[in-house]
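This section describes the prediction task in plain terms. A model, or a person checking by hand, is given the sequence of a single protein chain and must write out its three-dimensional structure as a string of tokens. No templates, partner chains or ligands are provided. The sample shown here is typical of the held-out split.
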Amino acid sequence: GRDAIKHGLIAMVLDLCVQLCITVGIYAAGELGLPELYQISAMQAAMPTYGTSWAMGVSYAIRIVGAGLVGGQQYFAFGMFVHSMTACGLAFAVLTVVTVIPWRRALAFGYGSQACEFASHTDCLPIYAGMFGDGDSTFNTLQASFNVFAPAAGSYSLFMITKAGLYACFDFAFMAWWAVASLFLVFLPGILVASQVYKTAAALYVAMYLPMLFLAIVFYIKLLVNLRRMNAGLPGPWKERERALTAPTGPAFGPRGQTWSNVGVSQPQRDYSSMQPDGSTALLTTELSSAGI
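The expected answer:
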């Protein structure tokens, strides 16, 4: 019970760091203005459809199947499974880029259609122009911001898959430490440059999801190290879970792995005194004889 609570709290550190990057990025966009905030909101609305929906399913498969393989000490099968799922995730990330980049303008207008209401009011025209451009500005627009949407979606998807692999290894402490490190080493410099130098929604979006790409690379390297240590029989956080998941079995053990003497029940014994040399009992021989067989 205590170990589960401890691991849950440590795993929560990673999720909090990831959400902090996204939340701070949204607030920074709000500080720049409503057009930037609407651009970030439009890309966040498109994220589940073109990024995280399929990655969520793959990550759950790795957590469920992978944890069982690690608990059963089937390290080779676990390695093959993780590599295949990671390759699948990489293929989907490339597919996200291929399907988004050619139609980024259509996606921008589709997910930003609600902002067209600003064009119906004269006072709101600057917000509309800040969203879609006014003919002179083509860089800080929603259409331009969708250029970085596909790489961000692919990075976040790969992050979810590699994170699930380390979840199956029960390597929660490593993920927590590097999540905190990514805040100071990657996100903080990135958000400062994006908000103080470039001051565009695209730059803020890159700063929001750059830590995910960084963590995806770090987690995958750690996953390779864990697989090598598993196959070599070296210790790691997965060893503790192996002892917890491996229950003793056999006729000498009763409920929950306890011996029959520990639970106050004598071990069941079979009477072999009447066993015949051919393996049948004397009683069975008598019954068959009386039946004429």
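For orientation: Residues 34-71 form the longest helix (38 residues).
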